[in-house]
Design a protein that fits this description.
Length: about 240
């Protein structure tokens, strides 16, 4: 279906049903898929061949997904989409902080998975040409560092701009306060995580239609914040 060569995806998942369903759907959407049912096998395959994306289940027998992504990060920058169980809230943030690029909580729809896969592949395919971020009527020019919503310019401080950009880069994913502090304020910033809350509040005043009922930047209790793109950002795939 695509003119470009097929993207190669390595799927590491121990649950037979999930692995088979994902493999089938990904193949139907034009991807070349290799599968592994254990962490050991997956790591060996990741090292033996080049892949454009790895979809990795967090809970695996033997080497778990977390150890695997850490091992992988020593030697490769291949994008990793982590699959986590709904039960564990911590999985979500641990996944990202270990070096995964995005995660998806089970159960998820196939449309959701395919959207994440496309986003990750697009992000890594042309990272150097990326000079703007858009979501619905919200636009960030990463070169001039100007932000606008619905054509109206938003007067963001440099920190607010960086914070919003970081959230938008991981649209749909929950970012912990610690992770945001680290990425936006920097390693050497010894502040409290409450600093993040304060800046999120200021940011909401500037970008949300109703700051008391934020839609773009959502609070995930006990975890952190998630950017939700406004509707009609891009066409969604049908549910499989
Ligand atoms: Ca599993």
């Amino acid at each position: 279906m695509a003119k470009q060569p097929k993207s190669r995806i390595l799927l590491i998942e121990d649950e037979d049903d999930v692995r088979k369903t994902l493999r089938l759907n990904l193949k139907e959407h034009g991807y070349k898929v290799s599968v592994a049912a254990t962490g050991v096998e997956g790591l060996a395959m990741a090292r033996a061949e080049t892949h454009d994306l790895i979809i990795l289940d967090l809970m695996l027998p033997g080497i778990d997904g977390l150890s695997l992504v850490r091992a992988l990060r020593q030697e490769s920058q291949v994008p990793v989409l982590m699959l986590t169980a709904r039960s564990s809230e911590m999985d979500k943030i641990i996944g990202l902080e270990s070096g995964a690029d995005d995660y998806l909580t089970k159960p998820f729809s196939m449309g959701e998975l395919l959207a994440r896969v496309r986003a990750l592949l697009r992000r890594t395919r042309a990272p150097e040409t990326r000079d703007e971020l858009s979501a619905g009527d919200l636009h960030l020019d990463l070169v001039s560092r100007r932000a606008a919503r619905g054509g109206r310019s938003l007067n963001l401080s440099p920190l607010e701009f960086s914070l919003l950009a970081e959230l938008m880069r991981h649209s749909g994913a929950v970012l912990s306060r610690d992770l945001l502090l680290n990425r936006v304020w920097g390693d050497d910033f010894f502040g409290e995580t409450r600093t993040v809350d304060v800046h999120v509040r200021w940011l909401r005043e500037k970008i949300e239609e109703d700051p008391s009922q934020p839609r773009l930047i959502q609070t995930v209790r006990g975890v952190g914040y998630r950017f939700e793109a406004p509707a009609a950002d891009e066409p969604e795939d049908e549910e499989a």
